[in-house]
Amino acid sequence: MEKSSNQKISIMGFFKEKGFDDGSIQKMFERCKQLELLDGERACENWNYLKSVGIQERKLPSVVSKCPKILTLGLNEKLVPTVQCLTTLGTKPGGVALAIAKFPHILTHSVEEKLCPLLAFFQALGVSEKQLGKLLLVNPRLISYSIETKFSQIVDFFASLGLNKQGMIGKILVKNPFIMGYSVEKRLRPTTEFLKSIGLNEFHLQRVVLNFPEILCRDVNKVLRPNLVFLKSRGFYHEQIAVMVTKYPPVLIKSIKNSLEPRIRFLVEEMGREISEIADYPEFFQHGLKKSLEFRQKLLKQKNIDCSLSEMLNCSRKKFINKFGLIAGCL
């Protein structure tokens, strides 16, 4: 007991030296009982190693607070091999450090029992070896989920939508690594049913999910339905909205106040156009109001040029100026 007490004082001294307050220290001891058997020297070694792999020292207190267990892991037995394995997946400098800072628990999982089976599972779904690193390092929390109970359920759900051809699910995961963290019954299925209810058929639904899987992650009642109600209130027909969502899915998640409303107002009041033109070119909503819409509208008005929205916007600024014979100085 006396030895344990001395060790605890030693680790307490370490925490104090690193700037942790009494409340934070108490919470860490409650969350990780192994800290009671840890000496300050061991903790310092792990701390310094984490710093050496690229985690900024100012972020280390937050990392350790999230997962105090990382201070108790064997340096050469656990930390170094795990980081080395993750480094082989890294696609850019600092990627591993950023992943650890996001989800430090990634270092507590077994490479052989958890990481390797997970990578094999994603490869079987069509995720390339090059993309595996991006997938895991962007959303390191993936390693904490169960393949059998979590991932398999989501894969089955995508298959039920007809997205079971070679590589389709892998493409979805690479575009949005966070989608695997959502509940099928509480989030993915309700959003899918909502998209069907506004008129998307099976083919269009597949297209939307493949091109913009993030839409399935948004709350129907808080985001998707309010945007639908807004679009209807501005005069879009049900059929037009279905086409718009198929062509440009973000229309259902963009901010009404900061994106949809001001652009529609500018289209009608300043450009003198009908909102039906947006139905033909819903990508209108992706263009910046000041840098793109106002700039191009001003030049077209000066030249008295009449063109469609897609002709006006579906090109770079340089091509736009060349297309309409405008002065080079506008660049």
TrEMBL record:
The organism sits in which domain of life? Answer: Eukaryota
Gene3D superfamilies from the UniProt entry: Transcription termination factor 3, mitochondrial (1.25.70.10)
Q: Mind telling me which residue stretches traverse the membrane in this protein?
A: none
Alphabetized GO MF terms:
nucleic acid binding
GO BP terms, alphabetized: DNA-templated transcription termination
What keywords are assigned to this protein?
Answer: Transcription, Transcription regulation, Transcription termination, Transit peptide
Protein family: Belongs to the mTERF family.
Listed PANTHER family? CGI-12 PROTEIN-RELATED, TRANSCRIPTION TERMINATION FACTOR MTERF9, CHLOROPLASTIC
Identify this protein by name.
Answer: Transcription termination factor MTERF6, chloroplastic/mitochondrial-like
